Amino acid sequence: MKPTLHTAHLSQGRATSRLLLDRIVHPRSVAVLGASDNVAKFGGRITSFLVKHGFTGELFPINRQATEILGRKAYPNMSELPSAPDVAILAVPGATLHQNLVAAADAGVGCCVIISTGFAELDSEGAQRQAAIVELSARTGMRILGPNCMGMIVPHHKMALCSSVTLNTDTLGDGSIGLISQSGALMVSMFDRAKADGIGLRYGISCGNQSDLEICDFIDHMVAEPETRAICVYCEGFVDAARFKRSAAACRAAGKPLLMVKTGRTAAGVVAAQSHTASLAGSFEAFAALCREQGVLLPKSTDDMIRTAHILTRFPGRRSVPGVGVVSSSGGGAGIASDRLSEAGLPLAKIERATIDKLEEKLLSPQAQNPIDLGGRKVPETVDITTDCTATLLADPHVGYGFAVLASMPFYSQRALRIAEAVHASGKPSLVALTVGALADEARRELRQRGIFYTDGFEDSLRILALLAENDDTRGLVETPAARPAGLSAVGALPKFREGLQTESEVKQLLASYGVAVAKESLAPTPEAAGEAAAKLGFPVVLKVSSRDIVHKSDVGAVRLGLADAAALVAAAREMTTRVKAAAPNATIDGFSVQEMVRGEAEVIVGVRRDPQFGPIVIVGLGGVTVEILHDVAVATAPVRQAHVVKMIDSLKTAPLFKGARGRPPLDVEAIANAVERISWLAHDLGARLVDLEVNPLIVGAAGEGATAVDGRANIAAAS
Ligand code: ADP
Ligand code: MG
Q: Are the C-beta atoms of 31 and 55 separated by less than 8 Å?
């Protein structure tokens, strides 16, 4: 039977109050629809894993034929259960799913976990089937996890509500990291891999298509709960980006690291996400800007995500000392490690004289530095030297992070253990990399047993260190919410404008009404009128053709700079008319724009656009060819504070040019920041009408000389 959107046949459901999330992740009772003792089937595996891992709540296997499954009394259907289960997991064919959901709602089930696929992630009919589920959920109060998910693993509740064969293990492993994943297969894989790394997770939640319960529901639960100390999310798309921003801000306020791997980094990733869980990936740059502002880390891989979260739970809090202290048992290892650290932008700590003196009691002078080379000893080799030197280095106040690169050395496993312990005792976030093969096998076992994380080889450690440093770097965080600049009138003060593409002078009027300095200009219908206008403005002037149809005026010869007198101007206007008509025969030409010739030190681009998910975003960078070749722009969510714009500019590759390099004066960054702030408010006030608006260039003078918009384009949608 194909489910339909027609709701008349649906049960009116029992008007349950919506079950609290805490109860959904810690249910007192679970029903498995499609339970069996055949582990080749989904329902069979789910039942067996619930039993195997000792679920302590009530378990209701539901199976039409059996009276008992794995020693538990089985029931033929939902309506015959002795009490309404908190959670039911439905391992049934898609065709019977909807009627089973209706029965579950009738039986008063609190939350249904739907593992079936073939919904919004598949096609429009699937989307309709999903809409019917959402409708049932909204009407009856029964919560839905999924569809297209793999359930939940909650070790501290001894609950493996999931069919993955990875659960065929003796223990689930428990920890303080909450993991939420849209992809079910990834969730169980991450869980399993974390365990192989000796990292326990507190939750593994797979939320699939997020038809009802969504990522943010779980983030919010985990933020509020003290036992979860870091949150990891694999996300393909957001149900509500504004809510995500609030959830991320709550994590930051609670001091809980939030780490995310999100698809859609590249265009290829976007396609994969669409075809996977039916969520549209928002523009990655807008998302990344939001994450930077709220302190959300974006590791590139799920391994890096879980491992970094683990270190962050071990060494909580943000630190302000950026230097790394490196210990190695090989000069070569120490050398490579320091090269790679500096490539990754992680400075080696400059340690104090007192630390060096102390190290020199045991090590030869050239080795008693950061990095320490344990091979260069003054005294006989002992395990103690290793420990003492490590502790001494890490105690230095300029060392923020520790990194032990353990190449071949005598007493390998004892020393590796002692170094790892010294590293942990330091209280500074530290990584241990084992760079040998079989020699480290015993150390691997021992470290694992003691719950000390290590990596094989140092590349993995380097990426984690970089993420730790990023977490501690608070420069990108938004400190205070944006406030309307003084003197900028509230919404409603927008001048009248027409919809669609705007001419340069229309954009400049909008900008001027928001207090952005624009080049003085006059519009003139004829070359002669342009001449008169120029005389009033004062020579030299700039002449442009005014047309909303020409996006890049210079490309068609529609811009002339530095015209010195009326005769030159009139001649240029005539010539320009001929040239533009030939190059852009279909463009409607409104006339000429005669402008003051603005002088400055640099050209900057400022743009705003409305992202369908994340709302208005603003960019700033050096304009002209630089932006086209380097793509060096900083992105933020709008509106933005002037102080934040200064930090954005600081984050550019071209930042030194703003500060004044090679004899060039520093630019008027304050004036740029002021213009960007105002343009970001214009974007905010245009609301849904903003498609995009760009100033290229804003001509910027040296510090104190100001910044003036000389060109602008915008697309503004009709009011809805
Ligand atoms: P386009 O449509 O090709 O981007 P612009 O209006 O940006 O045309 O003009 C092209 C270039 O001419 C600008 O990048 C800037 O260098 C210069 N320019 C334009 N207007 C002015 C002005 N009023 N004062 C000084 N230079 C200007
Ligand atoms: Mg331009």
A: no
